[in-house]
Amino acid sequence: xxxxxxxxxxxxxxxxxxxxxxxxxxxxxxxxxxxxxxxxxxxxxxxxxxxxxxxxxxxxxxxxxxxxxxxxxxxxxxxxxxxxxxxxxxxxxxxxxxxxxxxxxxxxxxxxxxxxxxxxxxxxxxxxxxxxxxxxxxxxxxxxxxxxxxxxxxxxxxxxxxxxxxxxxxxxxxxxxxxxxxxxxxxxxxxx
Length: 192
Prior knowledge:
The chain is α/β, with parallel strands linked by helices. It has helices at 3-16, 43-50, 74-85, 106-115, 120-128, 133-136, 143-155, 184-191; strands at 33-38, 58-63, 90-96, 166-171, 178-182.
């Protein structure tokens, strides 16, 4: 059976047995948190448990590397929506050790893109449109540095509400151990 039909078959059983009832919550995060983290599969269940987050406690935004690459991109927009419209009051950026984005090589990925059938003409068109694929597809060299850059992007955003703490953490995907890199409360005190 293919993935989509397997998912739908499971879903039918999930709904008919009312398994969803233990996940019911409102759209407002109980702990008033928005968490930006990596899409790494090791973090799917580990990160919420390591942070003591249950369903409904936080808005969790996942993308490759927990990177906010553009101040007006979809990740930053999601952070602002959580803060202004969904009653979140704090932001946590949580990267992880062994992140694939740290080792991402743009040249290798561009070669993979070509091998999977994307024509050189499309790549040339993108290049002529001002899109620098090598920059866009480049990873970061150090996981902690990646977290710090995302924290800085949020903290220095002109639309960030005043007095919102922005924290930076990194998690060990093997053990769940969290390391605090930026204490947003201390950052707030030093700016007062």
